[in-house]
Request: fold
Amino acid sequence: MKCDQLMCYWVRDSHDPDHYVCLKCNEERHVNHSATPETFVMLFFLGLFLTILLRSL
Ligand SMILES: [Zn+2]
Reply:
């Protein structure tokens, strides 16, 4: 049985806090708590934005 991922009933693996399993379809998901490339891109733009902001003062 496969369910819509939005409807998945995620339960955390008691042995691995980064590992989630859906009770309905047994879909597995690993949650990585370390920084993703998106985080670095976001920080880069945030820094760029602050630089422009500070220069305009
Ligand atoms: Zn599911």
